[in-house]
Design brief:
The structure holds two protein chains of two kinds. Chain A is 32% helix and 22% strand. By secondary structure, chain A is an alpha/beta fold. In chain A, a hairpin with a 2-residue loop joins strand 11 and strand 12. Chain A is globular, with a radius of gyration of 21 Å. Chain A starts with 11 loop residues before the first helix and ends with a helix. In chain A, 43% of the residues are buried. Chain B has one domain: Orthogonal Bundle (MetI-like fold). The chains are: A alpha/beta, B mainly alpha.
């Protein structure tokens, strides 16, 4: 993962010219919350690399640690009762080594985030215009008039009709889809190189979801911006990402380039997630194939595979020994003792 | 009339809640009108065609209401209308200025405590608990005894006493917003704490804080009235509502009107402030609830 040139002494982390490092390198990231019941291992040893202009999908069900992972990458975690270990490098700079003021210069300008619920991620009593221009004035230090012109342009580019009028409106005057377009415009305002979208469509109507995802994809391509798309829905990341990481219980259980994952999923959890997507080609009134049981208790990690209690294929070994991530081809790895045969999942589903 | 409009709008409200125009109601505007009238009269008291509220012996004592003296005169022949209007200056100054002070200090304390939490919260909470536990009347008596009975000291004392309750309320309101996603979003965009407090949280907290402070002004006006009734506020002969009620109390049997007029003025003003404050609180709550 880390090539030897990157593991030079500390000062080189800052000195390296851009281009020699991947845009984002996450190495053995762990985020544990200290609670009365002990440490909750929300993110437990996650590593991946994201190159410039590429898109990564992070998939997992609720409670698998996806949102915490996204926030850990940003460094947006509560100040107390959190243990964050491991390394996040942005263009070779160690984010954990940065002072709060240096981080603030990065946030919004270089790395931006789109949140799940546009109903709560916009300030209800501040006009749309100010919410967009504020970031630009802060990071780009441009005059008000120019910030306003740019805001109009941004709103137009995210598909909001009559943008000049919208600038004077408050969030409650906009529909959910429009609001999410506004939050995307805010996130894009300073031209970030990395966009973290944390379930950006979960709170929206199905019809609007597709529009927002298309918008994100178009902006990502036009701006040559890297994007991490966090979702619980394999369908969302299917055609829109270069690579997919499947998370379960705070760990990566399978990782593959998107086409490979769908044609050749190995991990039983990925398979179960895939099966739980309803299909138009299914016969009518067919039962939805849900994954039985509940996500594991992250405060009391299992000795073996964390998915074993819910897995149809689990055997004795699964309950005793945690499977390591093993390679299954170029860029493809999975953690499973008794993986699906290549092509098995796809065959079953069709 | 408003009821009729609301009634016709109500069925549509179920389908399209966004477009229902919420109203503050006639009673709210009557209350605000009364408060505005009292404030304007107090400000313009010097230029209004009023008699000197302090001149003794210009008129006959204890006259009933007449064209020359709309509210009559008191024991010393002073015009009661002039005294009630000049007396409102003390009540209003003390009421609004002390709450302004309380909002500035208590509001800042509450915002900081609610937003930062942790030790800062514990320390500021401790401070406001101490302030709350301090016996208010003894504090007032001490200040008045040692610093004197002037407007500034009385205002500041009541202002200091209002800090802790206001800080508590603002803190509670801040807590509601401190963990909202838009605050996290602002942080993710690189905003520093001071900016989040002033630009993101304050505009959300302010409406309900202002609504609440109208009620607080009413409480302070009553407190000032009680103080001057006890002779602890601004010294006579400067007219104050509480002081006039005390003077009137001595001649209550012979001339109840002397005590009645300042009582009515205070009652109406306090009622109006309370009512307007309550309506505003409900109004802003509805707005927040709808979001």
């Amino acid at each position: 993962m880390t090539d030897p040139t990157n593991s030079a002494p500390h000062h080189r982390d800052f000195a390296g010219p851009p281009g020699t490092h991947a845009l984002l390198e996450v190495e053995d990231l762990r985020t544990h919350f200290l609670t009365g019941r002990g440490a909750v291992r929300a993110v437990d040893g996650v590593s991946f690399t994201l190159e410039r202009g590429r898109t990564l999908g992070i998939v997992g069900e609720s409670g698998s640690g996806k949102t915490v992972l996204a926030r850990s990458i940003m460094g947006l975690l509560p100040a107390t009762n959190v243990v964050r270990k491991g390394e996040v490098r942005y263009e070779g700079r160690r984010l954990s080594g940065l002072a709060p003021s240096e981080l603030r210069e990065l946030w919004g300008a270089e790395i931006s985030m789109v949140f799940q619920d546009p109903m709560t991620s916009l300030n209800p009593v501040v006009r749309i215009g100010r919410q967009i221009t504020e970031t630009m004035r802060f990071h780009l230090a441009i005059p008000d008039a120019e910030a306003r012109t740019r805001a109009v342009e941004l709103l137009r580019s995210v598909g909001i009709p009559d943008p000049a009028r919208r600038l004077r409106e408050y969030p409650h005057q906009l529909s959910g889809g429009m609001r999410q377009r506004v939050t995307i415009a805010i996130a894009l305002a300073c031209g970030p190189k990395l966009l973290l979208a944390d379930e950006p469509t979960t709170a929206l109507d199905v019809t609007v979801q597709a529009q927002i995802l298309r918008l994100l994809g178009r902006q990502q391509r036009e701006r040559f911006m890297a994007m991490i798309l966090v979702t619980h829905d394999l369908g969302v990341v299917a055609g829109r990402t270069d690579e997919i990481v499947v998370m379960y219980a705070g760990r990566i259980v399978e990782r593959a380039p998107t086409p490979v994952l769908f044609s050749d999923m190995r991990m039983r959890y990925t398979q179960a997630l895939f099966r739980s997507i309803p299909r138009v080609t299914d016969p009518a009134h067919r039962r939805l194939q849900a994954i039985g049981g509940r996500p594991p208790d992250l405060a009391a990690p299992a000795r073996g595979c964390s998915f074993a209690p819910r897995c149809r294929f689990a055997r004795a070994r699964c309950h005793d020994e945690a499977p390591p991530l093993v390679d299954a081809g170029p860029g493809h790895s999975y953690a499973c003792w008794y993986p699906a045969e290549p092509g098995e999942a796809a065959a079953e589903a069709s | 009339m408003t009821e009729a409009v609301v009634a016709t709008v109500a069925p549509a409200a179920v389908a399209e809640p966004v477009f229902v125009e919420r109203r503050l109601g006639v009673a709210f505007w009557v209350s605000i009108g009364w408060v505005a009238l009292v404030v304007v009269a107090a400000v313009l008291a010097g230029v209004l065609p009023l008699q000197d509220p302090l001149a003794i012996g210009d008129n006959a004592p204890r006259l009933g209401p007449s064209a020359a003296h709309l509210l009559g005169t008191d024991e010393l022949g002073r015009d009661l209308l002039a005294r009630v209007i000049f007396g409102s200056r003390t009540s209003l100054t003390v009421g609004f200025a002390s709450i302004a002070f309380g909002l500035a200090v208590g509001g800042a304390m509450g915002l900081v405590a609610g937003y930062y939490g942790g030790r800062m919260d514990a320390a500021l909470n401790g401070l406001s608990t101490v302030l709350l536990a301090f016996p208010a009347l003894i504090f007032l008596l001490t200040v008045v005894t040692f610093l004197g009975q002037n407007l500034f000291d009385v205002t500041m004392t009541l202002g200091v006493l209002s800090v802790a309750p206001i800080a508590r309320i603002i803190r509670a309101n801040t807590l509601v917003y401190a963990n909202r996603e838009f605050v996290l979003a602002a942080r993710a965009l690189g905003a520093r704490n001071r900016r989040i407090l002033v630009r993101e949280i304050l505009p959300n907290v302010l409406p309900s804080a202002l609504a609440f402070s109208l009620v607080a002004v009413a409480v302070v006006i009553v407190a000032e009235g009680a103080l001057s009734f006890l002779g602890l506020s601004v010294r006579p002969p400067t007219p104050t509502w509480g002081g006039m009620i005390a003077e009137g109390g001595q001649v209550l049997a012979q001339d109840p009107l002397v005590a009645l007029w300042p009582s009515v003025a205070m009652f109406a003003t306090v009622l109006a402030l309370n009512f307007a404050g309550d309506r505003l609180q409900v109004y802003f709550q509805v707005r927040e609830g709808g979001l």
